[in-house]
Amino acid sequence: MNYHEFPPPAALSHSVRCFWLLEEQHTPHTEEHMFFPERLVRLVFYQGDSYVGLPGGSLEKLPHTYLMGLQSGPLRAVSRGFARVLGVELYPWAAMRLLGLEKVRSMHFSEAGMLLERLGRQISALLRLESEREALELLEDWLTSRSQVVNLEPNPATLAATRLYESKGQGKILDIAEELGISSRQLERGFMSTVGISAKQLARTIRFEEAFNRLMLEPQLNLTELAHTLGFADQAHFNREFKAFSSMNPTTFIKHVLHRYENIEQVPRGELSDLSNRSSEAL
User: Fold this and answer.
1) Strand ranges, E, within 69-120
2) Are 61 and 119 spatial neighbours (Cβ–Cβ below 8 Å)?
3) Which member of 2, 86, 158, 175 has the greatest number of CB atoms within 10 A?
4) How far is CA 150 from the centre of its chain?
């Protein structure tokens, strides 16, 4: 697996967490995996042979350009052979404006719309030619141009959402509203219209992904201590929330992580860290 992250240009620093490139050869041991809920919206350009769907349901072929993130539960995926992927992780309020989305809440998986059709074709062609850097530059330029024609000015809802990201989902919406000088009801209305998801659901998703990432990197972590660190009332509360998002309790998840690592031959420690950063593609 070859995975690299790239910081956004200054013009996109409040809209984009990172860009990333991935090359991966799937083996029979790793072709079956899951996409788990994430705190951000991913725009992905994919070259490979992969299929995705709800657990227990039918699978559909992964298109060359797709969106994913902030979904309420896991998705099953099957990937075969070699894959080359370019992606960008967008904050939800930026995804709505830059990509022309009507909503992002509970978004499981969707093909990109007409706005991205031409860009998707161009980037797919570059990925097929192994011109990853050119594809990355094209995507950066496209998003930068979009940022100049849409309104990305911060408002109380986006400022509050930023606080939730900074606090890893542990900020209290009442405290944030008071800090911003508005009522919690006003803030919640702004969240749904501007951020595309409720403040409570965003906070829950952020905390789930934080727990997910930590267990992916260090599956030996003490669950009681982790629950306390992430601000859960107790381990029982942590277990319920983790299962609500992943359809399995943390102990079962850890067993799957350890099993996957056993089947990835000679994975360097640095690449284990990369796996934790790509939380949507695991197990």
Assistant:
1) 75-90, 109-111
2) no
3) 86
4) 23
CB-CB contact of 211 with 200 (8 Å): no
Contacts of 162 (CB under 8 A, 6+ apart): 91, 154
Look at residues 9, 87, 97 and name the one whose alpha carbon lies nearest to residue 48. Answer: 87
User: What does the alpha-carbon distance between residue 261 and residue 281 come to, in Å, rounded to a whole number?
Assistant: 14
CA distances (Å), origin 179, targets 43, 152, 173, 187:
33, 22, 10, 11
- 219/257 Cα distance (integer angstroms): 7
CA dihedral 208, 213, 217, 221 (to 10 degrees): -20
- Would you give the DSSP letter of residue 87? E
Q: What is the pTM of this model?
A: 0.87
Summarised one tens digit per residue, pLDDT across range 201-259 is 999 999 999 999 999 999 999 999 999 999 999 999 999 999 999 999 999 999 988 87
For 233, the 3-state DSSP assignment is coil
| Packed helices 199-217 and 235-246: angle between N→C axes, nearest 10 degrees | 100
Residue 255, token pair as written in the block = 């067993």
Beta bridge partners, 20, equal 5, 87
User: For the chain, which residues make up each domain, given as ranges?
Assistant: 2-147
